[in-house]
Protein 1
Amino acid sequence: MTMTTSAASEWPDLTLFPGVADAVEEARQAVAELRRHPVNRRGWATSAAAAAVRASRASAALDGGSPELNAAAETVTDPVLAGALRCNSAMATLAPIWERAPLQALARLHTLAAADIEEPGALGRPRAAGGELGARLLGVAAIRVTAPWSAPVKVAVVHAEVLSLHPFGSANGVVARAAGRLTAICSGMDQQSLTVPEVHYLRTQNEYRHLLAEYSTGQETAVAAWIIYTCRALVAGAREGKSIADAAATAG
C-alpha cells in the first residue's frame, strides 16, 4: 500500500482504519484547546518561540545531536542542533512555500538542516533524480496539495514518507519532523506552531523507530499504528505547549 499516490480518486480513507478516527479527533481537540489557552490568545508568539526551541532540541537528539544550549555562548556548536533550530525558526517563511511548492520547501529545509554537515553542492539536492525516489517525492507534494485527509493524518504521513524515503544524504530526520510541523501549520490545525510532538518522539524513541520501520512495509495495520502514534504525540505535544503557556502566565 503506497501513501504517495498522485490521483485524488485513489487516496485511501485512512480514518476507516481501526482506531484512527478516534485518535485523530483526540489530537484535534487537544491542539484546539492549546490554541484557546489565555496566554496563546494574546501572546502566542512567545509560546511559539519557546515551542520551536524545545522541538529543535528533541529533533536534534533523535538524530544523534546534542540537545544542550549554552546560554553564555554566542553560537550553537552542535551542527545537528544548529540545523534543527534554523529549520524551526524559518517556519513562517517556509509555510507559504510549502503551500504552493512542497518540493522546493523540502529542499530548503535540507539546506537549513544540513548547512554545517553537507558539502554546499549537496544541499537541497535529493540523492537521486527521477525513478522511484522522484515519484514518491512528488507523492509527498501531492499529499500536501490534494490528499483529502484531516490534518493529523497528513502530519503523520508526510513525516513518515519523508523519513522512510531518506531523500537526502544527511539530516533526513530533522527535515522530516520539520515537514511535519509545516504540515500542521499549513493545514490550519496548529497555525501558530504551539505544539511540541518532537518531545514525545524522543521520549518514546524506540517505539518511534519501530513504528516507522513498520510503516515502510506499507501494511494497513502498520500505517494505522503510525497515524495513531502520531496523534498521541500531538496530544502529548499539546500538553508540552500548555506547560510553556502556563509558565508564561506565571511569569507574567
Protein 2
Amino acid sequence: MAARRGDAVLLLSMKMTYRAVTRSRITSVLILAGSAAVLYFVRDVFIPVALALLLAFLLAPVTDTLRKLRLGRIMAALITLVLGFTVLGLLGSVLVRELMDVSTGLPFYEQSVHKKIQELSGIRAISSLNRVIEAVNRGLSTPNSNRADQTSQPQSTPARQPVPVVIVDRTGNGLAITRSFLAPLLGPLGQAGIVLLFTTFILLNKEDVRNRFVRLAGLNQISVTTLALDDAAHRVARYLRFALLINLCFGSLIALGLFLIGLPNVVLWGMLAGLMRFVPYVGILISGSAPLLLALAIFSGWLKPALVLLLFLVLEAIVANAIEPVVYGANTGTSPLGLLVAAIFWTVLWGPVGLVLSTPMTVCLVVLGRYVPQLSFLHVLLAEEPPLAEDAMLYQRLLA
C-alpha cells in the first residue's frame, strides 16, 4: 500500500512538472511571437534605434579612450562623432569621384560590348533561343482577329491611330520639379538624421541608458541584467571590430587582384567589396557583378573576366568558410546555422536593413537566451556551444 501511494505521488509530481514545463514553453513562444509582431509593426521606430545602437557600439571605444584623456563626456562624444562622420564623408567623396570616372569611360567600351554580344549571339543554342523568343513576341503582338483580317483582306490599309493629346499645366513647374527631385531624398535623409540624433544621445548618456535598462528589468534582477548588458555589448563590439578588419583586408585583396589583372578604378571596386560584405550572403554578389561586367566590356577576350570571377569566388570561399566561422563563432558565440536562420528571419521582418543587422541582433538574442530562463531555447538554437554534454551525447549515440 505504501509503495502504491509513493508511486502515485511520484506520478502526480511528474505530471505537475510536465504541465509547468509546457506552460513555460507556451509562454516563451507567445512572448517571442508578440515581440516579433511589435518589431514588425513598429519597425519605423526600431530600425533607427538599432542602427544608432550599432554605431554607438562601434564608436564607444573611441569615446572611452578620449574620456580617459580627461576631455569630458560631452567633448569626447562630439569629437568621436566629428571623426566618424569625417571618415564617412571622405569615403563617400572617393566613391563619388570613382563612380564619375567609371561613368565617363563607359562610352569608350561600347564597341567591345557589341563585339561580346555578337560572339554570344553566334552560339547556336543562344541564337536559336533568340529566334524562338522573337517569334513568340511577334505572335503575341499580332492578335488572332487581326491575323484573320489580314488573310481575308490583304489589300486593306491599316486604320490610322488617333494622336494622344496631353495638356501640360505650366504653372508651378519649378516647384513640381523640385518636389519630384527632393521627395526620394527626404526619406533617407530623415532616417539618417534620426540615427545621428539617437547615436549622439547614446554616446552622451551611455550610463543613463544602461541604468534605465536595468530599472526596466527590475531591481531584483540587477546583477543578471548588468551581466547580460555587459556580455551583449562586449560581443557586439568584438563582432564589429573583427568584421571591420576582415572586410578591410578583403577589399584590399580584391583591389590588389584587380590591379594585377589590369582593371581600372580598383580603389572603387575594393571599397565596394569591403562595404558590401557587411550585407551577409548578398553583398558579395552585388560587389562582384560590377567589376565582372566592366571586365567584359573592357577586355577583348574571355580570360581576364574569368580571372575576375575566379578572384571573387576564391577569396569569398576562403573568408566565408575558413576565417569567419572561426572568428565570429569564437567572438560572438553564435553558430553558422543560427546566423543563417536569423538572417532570413530579420530580412523578412525588416527588409535589407534587417539583413545588415541580423548578426548583431542574433548576438543579443543569444545573450538573452543565456540569462533569461524563459528564453533559454534561443541559446540552444542559436549559440555556438554544443547543446548536449559529452556523456549525454555518448548515451544518445548508443541509443541511436
Protein 3
Amino acid sequence: MAKKNYTSTSSKAPLIQPVQEPSTTKLADSDSFVIPYPTLWLAALVFLLYVPSLKYGLTELDDSIFIRDFQAFNENLANLWGAFNRGLFDAVKDPYYRPLFSDSMILNYWLADHGQHIYLYHLVNLLLHLTSVILLFKLFGRLRITGPIAFVLSVFFAVHPVLTQAVAWIPGRNDTLLAVFVLSFLILSVDFVQTGKPLKILGSTLFLLAAFFTKETAVFAAPAAFVILILYLGRGVFEPRNLLQYGIWAGCFAIWFFARRHATVQVGLGGGTAQDIVRHLPLIWQYIGKIVLPVNLSVFPIMEDTVNYLGFGGVAAFAVVLLLSPKKDWKKLSAAILLFFLFLLPVLLVPASLNEQTFEHRLYLPMIGILLIFPETFFFNGKYTSGQVLVFS
C-alpha cells in the first residue's frame, strides 16, 4: 500500500492532517475492530493491579526521609516556593535539584493528615501511574499507531513488572511525575506542529518547564521531541513551527539551568568520567534483559549483582524478531531505539562516586522507546487482525 503524504502544498492547510484518536483507528482496511472506552479499561487495569500497594508502609529507603525526617520542612507551606531555592536532600550541598518532587511530598504530607496516612502517598503514586498510562495511549495516537495496537502497548506499560518500583515505592514518583510532564509536553509539541494553535505551544512550554523542575532526566525531553517530530513523523527540521519550538526549548533549559545553579552548590550530575561511562555500559543490556525477560528483578539492584546472560538473551530476541519482520519502517525503528537510549543516558552519566544503585524505576521513560519498536515487528504489522493481536497479547 502506498505511503500517504501528510504534507500539504497549500499555505492555508495544516502541514499535517489531524490524526484520528487511537480508539477509532483501524489496523487495516478490512479490520473494523474497535476497543470501546479504552481509557476506562486501562484505568480499571491499573487499579486492579496496584490497589494492594495502598497497604504498604515505608521501606526506610528515602521515603522515611521525605515523610518523617522532613516533617518540619513539610509543615511550612511556604516551602512550596522554598523548594526551588535548595537541593533535594540538603539545602546547600546537594547534586539533586527536584523542587516539584519536593512540592508533591509537601502537598501529600498535608493530604495525609501531617503524614499519618501512608496509604495516601501510595494512592498518589497509583494515580500518577494511571495518568502516565493514559497519556502514553494518547501519545501513541499522535504517532499514528492504530487504536488496538496503542491499547496493547499501553497495557504492557501499565502492568510490566519492571516498572513496579516506580509505582509501589513512594520516592519512585520522581519518575511517574516526570513522565506525566514529559508525555504531556510531547503530545502538545506534536499538536502544535499539526495545528499551530498558540495554546498548544504554551502548554508544551509549561509542561517542559515542569519536567525540568521535577528531575534532571528532563534534559533529554526536548531531544526526544526532536526525534519524534523529525525522524518518527517525518517533519522538516527547518519548518517554522519547529524552529519556534527549538528556541522555546533552549529558553526552558536556560531557566532551569540558572535556577539550579542559584539554588544549590553541588557537583554536576553529568560529571562522570569516561571511565564511569564505560563501566556503566553493561547496564544497557541488563536493563533490556529486565524488560524482555523480567525474572531477575530486585528491590535494591546493583550492576555487579545483575546477571548479563538475560540481557544478551533480550537483545538477541529483539534482533531475531526484527530480522523476521519484513515490513519494518527503518526511520520509525531508529527513532524508537534513539528514544530508549536518550532516556537511559542519564544512568550512564551519573558518576560512580555519587550513586551505585541501578534502580529499575529509571526504566519508566526508556520503556517508551522499547514499546515503539513493537509496531515495526511482524506481531503487529503482519497478517493478524487487531482482534487477534489483542487476544495473543
